[in-house]
Amino acid sequence: MPVNLNPPLASDLLPVAGVRLGVAEAGIRKANRKDVTLIELAPGSRAAGVFTLNRFCAAPVQVCREHIADADIRALVINTGIANAGTGELGLANARATCEAVAAAFGIQTQQVLPFSTGVILEHLPMDRLVAGLPKAKADLRADGWFDAAHGIMTTDTVAKVASRRIQLGGKTVTLTGMSKGAGMIKPNMATMLGFLATDAAVAPELLRALVKEAADLSFNSVTVDGDTSTNDSFILIATGASGASEITDAGSADFATLRAAVVDLSIWLAQAIVRDGEGATKFMSIVVEGGRDRDECRKVGYAVAHSPLVKTAFFASDPNLGRILAAIGYAGIADLDVAALKVWLGNGSEEVLVAELGGRAASYDEAAGARIMKSAEIGIRIDLARGKTGATVWTCDFSYDYVKINADYRS
């Protein structure tokens, strides 16, 4: 079960003016499941995105990078079941053919379509089934389609991840709704993660591009489940401009600050939802690293702890074998780290105990208190490097028996 993540309610989701969504069962890999999703954007909409840094990036990622740089985006198409990654020239041809089929259905240009795939790597898309599913998804298009779309992009997720926010810009009501998917093969820079966040605010293209990168860095690029960087990860930020609010053109304006805060907040929620629904997860862990000289070294330490299978399995067992945390900090790659100066705390929101100082176990540390905290579903690890004034946070989950079971049986 997800860690403190409840299934969404359709009644909690807000339509975004200028966006319609539809889903269909196309039998991409398994029968009787929603596996093709279409998102239609009103004319004049703008989109910006960030994508995986995996050198084996999937065919749809390659096509997305081409299209998002050259055209006004009018439609997105997402299939689950098969990732269309590691598929060579045929995979690229299939990704482009998918865009062509969607473009023909909407009467738009091919480069105005962004394709996305998620699922098993090294398998080719069944193009006949995918194309046959597009008319069904198009017929299902509706403004309140977020709930079904969030379910339609799931793979090993156990719950859909979708939420909404509402803000005021220049006296106008502006809506933001976003959805994400992912439960395993999750590590920045991005992961087997798909995220789509839409707003009906109007945003200048250069500001939208900067905002999607910043939001991703503070959210999706700050989570990890298992340290595997996927081939397909993508995060798209859409601004339709259909709210009637004036276009935001100044990064220093109050309206941009308000929008930025809402986009980052919703992105963090979506990113954390992925970790809370990590494959087999039973604990949600926040690793806060402070006192660093720069953010990069803080993130190095955070990820060293978050990726350690020894740390993650100890937290699953609620075993306060916390020397594993110190070991991970030590191999994080900070050559001149003064281990005698750093401190480590363990907490659960209502209680925090000092675990390590002066290069070893804190004199005040009580293992019974550590064990009590580790039984919590939400646990915080706070690390003070005592080197500067910069910090960073990484969110992760534990490793349970079910993680192995899920990934051992993934293709069956």
Main traits of this protein?
412 residues; alpha+beta; L-amino peptidase D-ALA esterase/amidase; Ubiquitin-like (UB roll); six-stranded mixed sheet; five-stranded mixed sheet; 11 helices; 15 strands; 32% helix; globular
Question: Can you tell me about this structure?
Answer:
The chain has helices spanning 59-70, 88-106, 127-139, 146-152, 205-218, 254-276, 295-307, 309-316, 323-330, 367-374, 401-408; strands at 19-24, 36-41, 46-51, 75-82, 113-120, 161-169, 172-181, 194-199, 234-239, 284-292, 343-347, 352-357, 360-361, 378-384, 390-397. It has 412 residues and is α+β, with helices and mostly antiparallel strands. It has two domains: 10-276, L-amino peptidase D-ALA esterase/amidase, CATH 3.60.70; 284-408, Ubiquitin-like (UB roll). Helix 1 (59-70) crosses helix 2. The longest helix has 23 residues, at 254-276. The relative contact order is 0.14.
The coarse overall form would be globular
CATH superfamily membership of the largest domain, which one? Answer: L-amino peptidase D-ALA esterase/amidase
Instruction: Indicate the proportion of strand residues.
Output: 15-25%
For the largest beta sheet, what order do the strands appear in spatially?
13-12-11-14-10-15
Number of helices: 11
Distance between the termini: 21 Å
User: Which class best fits the helix and strand makeup?
Assistant: alpha+beta
The tally of structural domains comes to 2
Largest β-sheet summary: 6 strands, mixed
Oligomer: single chain
CATH topology of the largest domain: L-amino peptidase D-ALA esterase/amidase
Instruction: Please give the share of residues in helix.
Output: 25-40%
Helices and strands, in N-to-C order? EEEHEHEHHEEEHEHEHHHEEEHEEH
Q: Mean pLDDT, rounded to whole units?
A: 92
**What's the architecture of the largest domain in CATH terms?**
4-Layer Sandwich
Query: Tally of extended strands?
Result: 15
CATH class of the largest domain: Alpha Beta
